[in-house]
Amino acid sequence: MNEPTPESTEPILHPGASAEKLGTTPSATSASQIASDRQVLEKLVFSNLQEAKVSRRWNIGLRMAWLVFAVAVFWVLRNDNAPANNPTSVHTATVEIKGEIASGADSSAENIVLAMRSALEDSGSKALVLVINSPGGSPVQAGIINDEIHRLKAVYKKPIYAVVEESCASAAYYIAAATDKIYVDKASIVGSIGVLMDGFGFTGLMDKLGVERRLMTAGENKGFLDPFSPQTEAQRKHGQLMLNQIHAQFIEAVKKGRGDRLKETPEMFSGLFWSGQQAVELGLADAMGSLDIVARDVVKAEDITDYTRRENVAERLAKRFGAAVGSGAWQAMRSSVNLR
């Protein structure tokens, strides 16, 4: 019979005995684990509370910032378009017409008409001077301003003059023609009494490249100004008829405003433009003169107050944040009738 080996004679310890041998008990191990879990839980709760506090502070801060922003915008909207000062003495009122004359632009009919009304309603304004530096723009916008100038002269019984800086062409001259007198610099560009509709045609290039235009319309002339479709003779004649009609309206407005002062020539309404000196000789302008000269020597009121409506802070912020994104591309792509 085999005798037991040392390994087989060593007593087997109970799990509880092993814990006692290590100096711990099951209850101690459990209590330690519970304490550790409690600490972790407390840290998580404390962390969540801290995050909630920070989030609440941020929300309050953001709301306060938006409130301050709203108050600032409201204040700017109320005061940004007001004249630089509030004169009580006699002065010369001015409104600037600069850049393109178009809807939504600084020199839109809406802005110009409101500014002219504000200027003439002021009891201290002795006369209104339109300071013009524009290559032209929309005949619709110019026509609205032209009509309003005639109406305002009759209502307020105050003279309205035009002072031309570098350029007073097409739609800008459409406006100037309604004023009582036009003053220019000898080197100013004046005139360009004509109408154009511009665009591009790519049909030949598309044929060479093997590109097919797939345009669906309801109405045979709906794609009239599409640059990728051929233009028919009927469409060309229709467009020309429309341009001739608008041109006739322009000529009538010039003749109505300038009257017997015009020394009409065959080229006067051909779209040509002239220097300020030539414009005076042709009766398209009345005399040489700057804003200061007109205010001092013609209006007899050297103090000048600007009533021009300018883009306010809210509008600039709106454009910066994308409110006007794509408008430039749209303006560049679309074909339109312009006096320029």
Task: Describe the model.
The chain is α/β, with parallel strands linked by helices and 340 residues long. It has a single domain, classed as 2-enoyl-CoA Hydratase, Chain A, domain 1, CATH 3.90.226. It has twelve helices and ten strands. The strands form two sheets. Strands 1, 2, 3, 4, 5, 7, 8 and 9 form an eight-stranded mixed β-sheet that branches. It has a two-stranded antiparallel sheet with strand order 6-10. Helix 6 links the parallel strand 3 and strand 4. The longest helix has 54 residues.
Which segments are poorly predicted (pLDDT under 50) over 5 or more consecutive residues? 4-22, 321-325
- The CATH architecture name reads Alpha-Beta Complex
CATH superfamily: 2-enoyl-CoA Hydratase, Chain A, domain 1
Shape: flat
Strand content: 5-15%
Number of helices: 12
Order of helices and strands: HHHEHEHEHEEEHHEHEHEHHE
Whole-number tally of structural domains: 1
**Helix proportion:** 40-55%
Counting helices, strands and paired strands, the structural category is alpha/beta
Radius of gyration: 39 Å
The pLDDT mean sits at 81
Distance between the termini: 126 Å
How many strands in all? 10
Major sheet: 8 strands, mixed
Oligomer: single chain
CATH third-tier fold name:
2-enoyl-CoA Hydratase, Chain A, domain 1
Report the top-level CATH class: Alpha Beta
